[in-house]
């Protein structure tokens, strides 16, 4: 199972959103917790999903705060978080690029597309660039097999992608960002 | 939206909405599915709105975003109403024309219409497209019509009528009976009877009860659930209301993958709308039934598609399965009775309730009723969503709906059922597909994902691919699954990297059994299926990887390198010489070719070019015209040239029997390796089958002579009119090794009456006479029997020699014809008549042939190789007048040389040799070319000669190293601009010029054209 982190314990050198954002950051997580009153064990997944929607990942100090408020141990959170591939314990890039490695994409040259994106970004599966511009990951199947190979950049689907095309996509994201 | 308080007011509302539908309204429907979205559907919608605005057509023409039309390959898809004109791959610049001509005037825009990949004709209306006309869309009927998030749109087309009927008129037991009698089976994969499942949950003690819609569609290759939830979310909600009523559930959950954002959004909106309308919540339609739905997103774990894992996930845990029983129907979510149905299953429910179980049972097979939605993807022309009755064959789906395999490649297998399924080979193409029949093949139907694979897909790599997937997705609970899949993956990886051993195949089978036996849930129990099914059907590919270090699909990167080079039996460095041509350096290109193949002039004309079949550019548009480029290089360089001749003393004497392509190739390389080589040819001419088999109009003799002269210059001695009767004589005469390359020149028999009449001859005898000039004229009617290149060559030669008519009889259809496509086309242009699906049953005449009696054939079920068996049509016999009959149905070897020498191994009507070394057993004799393979291609013979040369050199104590490859061309990766260059055709002669020409009839490229064509190469060798 691919993990969001590399097996380190919670709170070592992972993100600390509350320290970064102070009161404001705390208000965000408290706002989410308001929706789960009282928080039950089976609320854990939606709770984590909503936290991640807000922060972009699951910052360690936020999780500790949630644990204090809900009584759900961080160890249990960690078990759940590392089980599901969509949860991330580390800060993510501003742009998420996901390439599909499903069967249909595989037989229509998806491997070359993944390779080209990785070469261009200098990132392997699951990594984030140092300047937090890009996070690159692959997905088991994005369910758009008729368009294979498929790449999703910032939620926008692109079909019949070639190695050249994925480089072009990445270049245009960079250009858009540097243009402001 | 006002809450609907009773069933009566619901019906009144429905009637009002339905009566407002205007069948004549001008509507532009734009597909809003994820597929079309990826191709820019939103921009197209905007363009239509702007154009309507600009022309002041608001109120006259409306634009509507619908669910997925299913033909994702052709996105963005637009269908204009009321004419139902199908506009594929629409671009913004086409919008004004479509609006003007099609929407306003009802006239299709010819150039924008769909072009049928099989017939090439343009099709205007969606129901006439073979993609749609061969489907039976029931579950999917509204997907391309409705606005997915418009409740009224759904209600106006009988939406929620089934729910209303159930609430008003049926008891829960009646609903369960109806579903059970319909025979509906769960569409998620296991195929359990839905009615029975509901009954179990209804009967279970406990309250509340839960209903879960499983939309955690994780199978790579399947996307029907996504499309249904995106396109008709209300139909799923309606199915859930009916199911909940039947089992007595008060709460429903849609568990949907977070990877499907549009499905999440649309189902959320639809639930809100239904709640507002009183179709969900307390006292639905005043019928006293309470039911509500919440939406829960998955977080990226494939195993959560399994029922008990899904429940664990819903309860906030790691998604790990638990043993069953107790089944979820008894103890499920929160320990309460829970019923879990797949999206597609629930989508069938309203249909059954409205139309009745009798109607439903009329569709599909006896054991599997209704339709099944398949997702068609991979190497097939029409990808997308396909709904067909249960029991449809793979051939109907892949060829009928899917339009066959692109790029002239052949079908190899279809992967069914994702990681739990397997690869179904060609011989099952005619098997009616349902839950039970698919199991025979070692696959499962699963959720219906079909990924089509052609000959460029390696089956071992596919097994590795799926095993990697299950290894990653195994939850880790059961050791056999967690550790076994890892072990299997490691073994598969080393096989694909050329490091496997034969015992690995047994290990994989044993491990597979252990994982199957020792795992708790469906994921583990089926995890080995992709491996076991590929071993079962494609064991030879595993063996080739292990023994020959060869990947038949030319795709395993570490073993193959560049696919065109790997596909060439002589392994010519294609990208290098193509690049040199692109740089305007044809002489160096020619020399690059000759380092692996001494017949560039021949192969530039008459090669069947497997390199092009496996060219990766073919996946984007068309293959690089490698053969034409090779010809250009050989035409451009007029001098014969000088080979890298061996300068030292020659050691080891080798005799080569037969001066055909295999023999001369072996002689050429052995000579370059410093051996003393003598070629012994029984005929007066040199070239073997190149002369007897290929007419001069395809291979001019001066061209052939140039290649032969080059081979001579390498130091080869060729003696003609030298009949060899005994291999032993040669060994006794002091030759250290012998290479037997005598070809397959004995004709096979048709085994029909009249075969020995005067005027009946075999194709080689005919071509030999014609090519040598002893037969200068052919009179009367000629009938040629066969479908290979020899048959077509004979027919074209007979036509040239003045035959009144020439007819080719071939027992299968054009598609199956082994002759090169371009040859067949030229023959037809020249006036040769092709009778496909026609076989001779007798040759009749009084002493001399007068007519051929034929029977029409039809194609039956697939044989072992997936080719459809020709079967005679009873009572369809007819006669064709014939003065000459040429039999071209496959030659055999003359095995005389085996007599008196035990070292030569015989296999049926051919010789046997080691496929890697061409050696015959442990003897000093090597064998290669048609004499081993039966009639094959020139490049196969050249490859065999090259392999034999290396092996003989090693046998004589050498290293067996061919002339070193050089890298002369610049290592420049092509830019995006080369994608715009289309494949360049060869200049063609007019039919009139073609007709009588004995000279070469196909002209080569000009230098500028060759240069452009060469630039199309993607330089896969540099990756």
SSE arrangement:
The complex is a heterodimer of chains A (180) and B (1023).
Chain A: H1 17-34, H2 44-55, H3 60-70, H4 74-83, E1 95-100, H5 103-107, H6 110-121, E2 134-139, E3 151-153, E4 156-158, H7 163-178
Parallel strand pairs in A: 1-2
Antiparallel strand pairs in A: 1-3, 3-4
Helix pairs in contact in A: 1-2, 1-3, 6-7
Chain B: H1 7-20, E1 26-31, H2 34-38, H3 41-54, E2 61-66, E3 78-81, E4 85-87, H4 95-104, E5 114-115, E6 122-123, H5 130-133, H6 151-156, H7 161-169, H8 172-182, H9 194-203, E7 210-215, H10 224-231, H11 233-247, E8 251-256, H12 261-276, E9 292-297, H13 307-314, E10 338-342, H14 343-355, H15 357-361, E11 371-378, E12 384-389, H16 394-401, E13 411-416, E14 422-425, H17 435-440, E15 449-454, H18 459-473, H19 479-496, H20 503-518, H21 522-526, H22 529-548, H23 557-560, H24 563-567, H25 574-582, H26 586-594, H27 600-606, H28 610-613, H29 626-636, E16 653-657, H30 661-672, E17 676-680, H31 689-692, H32 701-713, E18 717-719, H33 727-732, E19 737-740, E20 746-747, E21 760-762, H34 763-772, E22 781-785, H35 789-800, E23 805-809, H36 821-830, E24 833-835, E25 838-844, E26 851-862, E27 868-872, E28 878-881, E29 884-887, E30 891-892, E31 906-907, E32 910-911, E33 925-927, H37 930-933, H38 938-955, H39 991-996, H40 1007-1014
Parallel strand pairs in B: 1-2, 7-8, 7-10, 8-9, 11-15, 16-17, 16-19, 17-18, 19-33, 21-29, 22-23, 22-29, 23-24
Antiparallel strand pairs in B: 1-3, 3-4, 5-6, 11-12, 13-14, 13-15, 20-30, 25-26, 26-27, 26-28, 31-32
Helix pairs in contact in B: 1-7, 7-11, 7-14, 8-9, 8-11, 10-11, 10-12, 11-14, 18-19, 18-22, 19-20, 20-22, 25-26, 25-29, 25-40, 26-29, 27-29, 29-40, 30-38, 34-35, 35-36
């Amino acid at each position: 199972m691919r993990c969001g982190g590399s097996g380190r314990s919670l709170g070592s050198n992972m993100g600390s959103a509350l320290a970064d954002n102070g009161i404001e950051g705390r208000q965000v997580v408290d706002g989410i917790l308001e929706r789960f009153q009282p928080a039950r064990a089976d609320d854990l997944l939606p709770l984590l999903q909503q936290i991640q929607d807000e922060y972009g990942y699951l910052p360690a100090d936020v999780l500790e705060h949630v644990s204090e408020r809900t009584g759900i141990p961080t160890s249990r959170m960690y078990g759940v978080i590392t089980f599901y591939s969509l949860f991330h314990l580390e800060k993510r890039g501003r742009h998420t690029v996901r390439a599909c490695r499903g069967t249909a994409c595989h037989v229509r040259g998806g491997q070359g597309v993944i390779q080209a994106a990785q070469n261009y970004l200098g990132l392997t599966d699951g990594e984030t660039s140092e300047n937090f511009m890009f996070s690159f990951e692959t997905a088991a199947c994005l369910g758009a097999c008729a368009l294979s190979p498929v790449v999703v950049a910032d939620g926008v689907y692109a079909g019949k992608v070639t190695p050249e095309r994925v480089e072009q996509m990445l270049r245009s994201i960079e250009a858009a960002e540097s243009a402001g | 939206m006002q809450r609907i308080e009773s069933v009566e007011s619901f019906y009144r509302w429905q009637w009002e909405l339905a009566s407002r539908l205007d069948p004549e309204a001008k509507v532009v429907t734009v597909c809003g599915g994820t597929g079309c979205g990826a191709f820019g559907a939103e921009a197209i919608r905007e363009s239509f709105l702007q154009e309507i605005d600009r022309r002041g057509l608001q109120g006259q023409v409306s634009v509507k975003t619908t669910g997925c039309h299913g033909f994702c390959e052709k996105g963005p898809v637009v269908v204009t109403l009321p004419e139902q004109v199908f506009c594929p791959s629409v671009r913004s610049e086409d919008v004004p024309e479509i609006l003007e001509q099609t929407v306003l005037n009802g006239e299709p825009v010819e150039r924008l219409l769909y072009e049928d990949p099989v017939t090439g004709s343009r099709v205007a209306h969606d129901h006439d497209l073979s993609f749609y006309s061969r489907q039976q869309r029931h579950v999917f009927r509204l997907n391309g019509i409705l606005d997915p998030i418009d409740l009224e749109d759904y209600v106006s087309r009988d939406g929620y009528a089934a729910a209303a009927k159930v609430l008003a008129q049926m008891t829960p037991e009646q609903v369960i009976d109806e579903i059970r009698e319909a025979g509906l089976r769960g569409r998620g994969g296991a195929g359990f009877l839905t009615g029975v499942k509901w009954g179990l949950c209804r009967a279970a003690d406990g309250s509340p009860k839960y209903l879960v819609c499983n939309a955690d569609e994780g199978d790579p290759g399947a996307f029907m659930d996504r499309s249904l939830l995106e396109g008709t979310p209300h139909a799923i909600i309606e199915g859930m209301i009916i199911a909940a009523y039947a089992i007595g559930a008060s709460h429903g959950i849609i568990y949907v993958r977070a990877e499907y954002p549009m499905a999440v959004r649309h189902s959320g909106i639809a639930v809100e709308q239904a709640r507002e309308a009183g179709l969900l919540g307390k006292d639905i339609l005043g019928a006293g039934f309470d039911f509500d739905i919440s939406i829960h997103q998955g977080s990226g774990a494939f195993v959560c598609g399994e029922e008990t894992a899904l429940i664990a996930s819903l309860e906030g845990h790691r998604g790990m399965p638990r043993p069953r029983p107790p089944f979820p129907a008894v103890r499920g979510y929160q320990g309460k009775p829970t019923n879990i149905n797949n999206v597609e299953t629930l989508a069938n429910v309203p249909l059954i309730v409205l139309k009745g179980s009798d109607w439903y049972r009329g569709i599909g097979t006896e054991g599997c009723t209704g339709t099944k939605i398949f997702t068609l993807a991979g190497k097939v022309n029409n990808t997308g969503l396909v709904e067909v009755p249960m029991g449809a064959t793979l051939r109907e789906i892949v060829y009928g709906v899917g339009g066959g395999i692109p790029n002239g490649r052949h079908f190899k297998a279809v992967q069914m059922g994702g990681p739990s399924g397997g690869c179904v080979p060609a011989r099952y193409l005619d098997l009616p597909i349902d839950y039970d029949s698919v199991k025979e093949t070692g696959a499962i139907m699963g959720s219906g994902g079909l990924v089509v694979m052609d000959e460029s897909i390696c089956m071992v790599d596919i097994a590795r691919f799926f095993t990697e997937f299950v290894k990653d997705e195994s939850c880790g609970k059961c050791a056999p699954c967690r550790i076994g899949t890892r072990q299997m993956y490691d073994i598969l990886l080393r096989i694909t990297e050329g490091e496997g051993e034969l015992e690995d195949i047994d290990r994989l089978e044993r491990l597979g059994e252990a994982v199957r036996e020792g795992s708790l849930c469906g994921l583990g129990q089926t995890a080995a299926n992709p491996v076991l099914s590929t071993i079962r059907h494609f064991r030879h590919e595993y063996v080739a990887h292990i023994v020959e270090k060869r990947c038949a699909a030319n795709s395993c990167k570490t073993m193959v390198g560049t696919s065109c080079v790997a596909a060439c039996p002589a392994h010519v460095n294609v990208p290098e010489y193509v690049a040199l041509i692109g740089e305007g350096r044809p002489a160096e290109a020619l020399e690059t070719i000759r380092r692996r193949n001494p017949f560039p002039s021949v192969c530039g004309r008459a090669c069947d070019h497997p390199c092009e079949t496996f060219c990766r550019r073919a996946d984007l548009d068309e293959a690089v015209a490698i053969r034409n480029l090779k010809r250009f290089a050989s035409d451009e360089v007029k001098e014969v040239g000088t080979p890298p001749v061996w300068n030292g003393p020659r050691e080891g004497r080798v005799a080569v029997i037969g001066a055909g392509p295999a023999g001369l190739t072996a002689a050429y390389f052995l000579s370059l390796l410093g051996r003393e080589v003598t070629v012994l040819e029984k005929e007066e001419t040199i070239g073997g089958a190149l002369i007897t088999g290929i007419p001069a109009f395809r291979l001019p003799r001066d061209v052939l002579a140039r290649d032969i002269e080059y081979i001579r210059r390498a130091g080869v001695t060729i003696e003609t009119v030298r009949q060899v009767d005994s291999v032993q004589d040669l060994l006794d005469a002091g030759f250290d090794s012998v290479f037997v390359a005598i070809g397959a020149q004995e004709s096979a028999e048709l085994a029909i009456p009249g075969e020995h009449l005067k005027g009946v001859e075999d194709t080689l005898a005919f071509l030999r006479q014609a090519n040598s000039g002893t037969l200068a004229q052919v009179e009367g009617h000629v009938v040629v029997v066969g479908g290979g290149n020899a048959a077509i060559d004979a027919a074209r030669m007979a036509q040239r020699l003045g035959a009144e008519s020439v007819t080719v009889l071939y027992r299968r259809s054009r598609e199956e014809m082994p002759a090169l496509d371009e040859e067949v086309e030229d023959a037809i242009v020249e006036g040769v008549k092709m009778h496909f699906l026609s076989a001779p049953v007798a040759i009749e005449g009084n002493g001399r042939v007068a007519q051929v009696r034929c029977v029409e054939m039809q194609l039956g079920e697939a044989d072992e190789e997936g080719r459809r068996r020709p079967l005679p049509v009873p009572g369809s016999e007819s006669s064709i007048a014939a003065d000459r009959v040429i039999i071209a149905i496959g030659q055999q070897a003359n095995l005389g040389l085996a007599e008196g020498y035990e070292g030569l191994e015989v296999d049926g009507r051919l010789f046997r040799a080691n496929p890697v070394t061409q050696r015959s057993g442990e003897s000093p004799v090597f064998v290669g070319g048609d004499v081993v393979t039966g009639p094959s291609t020139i490049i196969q013979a050249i490859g065999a000669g090259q392999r034999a040369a290396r092996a003989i050199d090693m046998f004589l104590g050498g290293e067996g190293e061919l002339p070193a490859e050089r890298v002369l061309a610049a290592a420049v990766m092509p830019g995006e601009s080369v994608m715009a260059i289309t494949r360049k055709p060869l200049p063609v002669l007019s039919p009139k010029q073609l007709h009588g020409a004995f000279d070469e009839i196909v002209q080569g490229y000009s230098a500028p054209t060759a240069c452009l064509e060469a630039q199309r190469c993607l330089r896969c060798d540099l990756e």
